[in-house]
């Protein structure tokens, strides 16, 4: 789920992704007691996440679980939890995490927008993080920045037009 962390960058916020497997091989060193670790899991039932909670908690990070199953070992071990209701997956055999990941992404986007509002993020601040996209260009570029000058325009004069055109019979 890289969309939500990317949205953090556009709001000028530091973020990192932490894979549970990589965390146990040194990457947990990025966590401090000033960090918030959000754990996303449909079922909560992975040994790696439960082990990660113990290690991250020992480092003093604030732990938030987002799951579709209420009252489980992960939500109990975390400081806070959010239940993201899920009736069933879109997958015909109800296994592939299609609906659950979509719900997690919508929830993450909603939180990101709420934080933007709470921080009173301006269009200019947002655009400054999008200099190459339409958002940034619409606020920072002027016509003179992209307009071709007269000496740069490809001009075809009547006198040299027919010199360049092949004659077909």
Short summary:
The protein has 169 residues and is mainly α. It contains nine helices and three strands; from the N terminus they run ααβαβαβααααα.
Give the ordered list of helices and strands: HHEHEHEHHHHH
CATH architecture of the largest domain: 3-Layer(aba) Sandwich
CATH H level, superfamily name of the largest domain = Glucose-6-phosphate isomerase like protein, domain 1
* Beginning-to-end CA distance, first to last residue: 63 Å
Broad structural category: mainly alpha
What integer value in Å does the Rg equal?
26 Å
Q: Largest beta sheet: what is the strand line-up?
A: 1-2-3
Number of strands: 3
Please summarize the sheet with the most strands.
3 strands, parallel
| Helical segment count | 9
Estimate the mean pLDDT confidence: 84
Shape: elongated
Q: What's the level 1 CATH class of the largest domain? A: Alpha Beta
| Poorly predicted tracts of residues | none
CATH topology type of the largest domain: Rossmann fold
Domain SIS: 1-121
GO molecular function, one term: isomerase activity
InterPro entries: SIS_dom, SIS_dom_sf
Keywords: Isomerase
What does this structure look like?
This protein is mainly alpha-helical and 169 residues long. Helices cover 43% and strands 9% of the residues.
Keywords:
single chain; 9% strand; three-stranded parallel beta sheet; 3 strands; elongated; 169 residues; mainly alpha; 2 domains; Rossmann fold
List the helices and strands and how they pair.
Blueprint: H1 3-10, H2 20-23, E1 36-41, H3 47-58, E2 62-67, H4 73-77, E3 80-83, H5 99-118, H6 123-128, H7 134-140, H8 143-146, H9 158-164
Parallel strand pairs: 1-2, 2-3
Helix pairs in contact: 1-5
